[in-house]
Amino acid sequence: MTNETTVMEFILKGFSDIFELRLLSTISVLFIYLFSLLGNMSIIAAVNRDNRLHTPMYFFLKNLSFLDMCYTSVTIPKALINSLMESGVISFRECVAQLFLFVMLCASECFLLTSMAYDRCLAIHKPLLYGVIMNRKLCTELVIVAWLSGALYAIFHTVNTFSLLFCGPNIIDHFFCDSSPIMRLSCSDPHTNEEVGFVVGGCIILGAFALTIISYVIIISTIAQIHSANGRWKAFSTCSSHLATVILFYVTGSFAYLRPASHYSPTQGRLVSVFYSILTPSLNPVVYCLRNRDMQVALIKLYRSSK
Questions:
Q1: Burial class (CB in 10 A: 0-12, 13-18, 19+), 283
Q2: In a domain, 132, yes or no
Q3: How many structural domains is the chain composed of?
Q4: What is the pTM of this model?
Q5: Parallel, antiparallel, or unpaired: how do β-strands 9-12 and 171-172 relate?
Q6: Is residue 2 part of a domain?
């Protein structure tokens, strides 16, 4: 019987092993994080203050912005502090909590984007019944389901990751606690856990994506039946921002998680993580502001009133 000790803390390697790159990455991530907070808080404030934006679409957008704020705040502040202090120490419990919260928020956003696609589908396909079907009660229920579903998946994912034995190496080749680099440190064989996590995660992501695709198939087929080009453009413009957000989320998320753990590369993992955990939540406010006239007007009013 071998003498094994339980790991009590991990060490995060950070954004880069090279000092110059780590410094540049830290400064860049800090500015992106602050921009993300400002953009998402502005959207929430604008939706709350402008009565014209008290509709289901903007209700979901407000929740998406809140999710994105939490999403980035779970990982980025800790990574920035570790980088600035040149200390990547994170306790075992903190690492478990960070993985759970990150996966919960990521999965919740996945389900919320599906709900938003359903909302746009009803608005375009059933405009006369839209106000009756998509009422405040249903909107709230869809958001609650998204959060609860994300939490349930996060419980599974966290248990699947930390049910492995950790008794030796404790240096995580990443800037936050993510499952793939953590599993690589296990003293026990992580193959089964990796495969189970890959299959379950793939089914959830692809399932939510399939529902989103179905919504957009109905949306496109409905738009195609509109006779005037102006009418088709007006209908499409109501969902173009959401479509851009969906593409950003799923493209970056797929590169990060829909690949076997045997193909995992630490450098590639950190690079992809920057996109889906930092850049994508930061770009969502930009996408909605550039493509949405009502949001632009509401934000202008918000900033003018704050002066």
A1: buried
A2: yes
A3: 1
A4: 0.88
A5: parallel
A6: no
